[in-house]
Write the structure tokens for this entry.
Amino acid sequence: MKKLTNAQFEKACSYIENEARGVDRAFFKYWKGEGNEEQVLQELEKYRNEDGGFGHSLEPDFRLQESSPMATSVAFQYLTKLGLSSDHPFIKQGVKYFQDTNPIGEGWQAVPVTVNDVPRAPWWSVQQGEQTYSANPDAEIVGYLLAFSDDKEPKSKMLMKVMDHLSELNDYEIHEVLCYLRLAELAGGDIKDVIVDKVHKQLPYIVDRPEKWDSYGVQPVLLVDSEDAPFVDELNQELHVNLDYIVDQQKDDGSWAPTWEWGQYEEDWEKAKREWKGYLTVQQVITLSNFDRIEK
């Protein structure tokens, strides 16, 4: 069993301190007990717009200043980890943004068509015409509405839509799966049971073999990030191989790098890549810590 050495851990901390975005640096300090939630919120404020949504490249793979449901869902991933209540302004205004961008309960467009006017990864281009429905980010957003909104009708309609979609799924795309798992944690109860059961049955088809991990393959830690997560027993063997792999993937500068490329807008991709490196380094250190894979 491989562990991150003290020297490697310190390198990671140094990289985060010197190279990560302010929001990831602040969150890492909060996680270590050296910072507070207000410092994270001050950094998140830089990505927040007047409509209550978030933009400004918070999701680094599209360089859009205006708000989008996708970037706002990323913001809520930070906000829920801080344990904020439903009456916090970021939560209240973010919920209103979600409601305003899906007024009739038919689903959210992950990014507006104006994303086509800015540098981005090719998968974020918006194509005109009818699109295949995806629960990314709809399922996750429904979870936030269940957790923080008192407006029952719209969220009930969307909950039915995303759960019906889950029941009909044959191809389990990892980003949809992660959105459903976030919904499961936020909703709990029967909803969580249904989602976990559905994903559990598909685990062999969702998780990729190690030879694919270098090229954006689905790694077990995406589904199991702590000892308390669902599927920790089912993926036990694959998980420990994955954790060894993560230790080995740390770069000489202390970081972890994305396994994908844009293949376009090279100058903007380099900036996005640096932002991803900071984010991923925080996440990998936290995951390794959760599994006692950092030397004391």
Notes: The chain has eleven helices and no strands. Residues 37-120+132-206 form one domain. The mean pLDDT is 96.
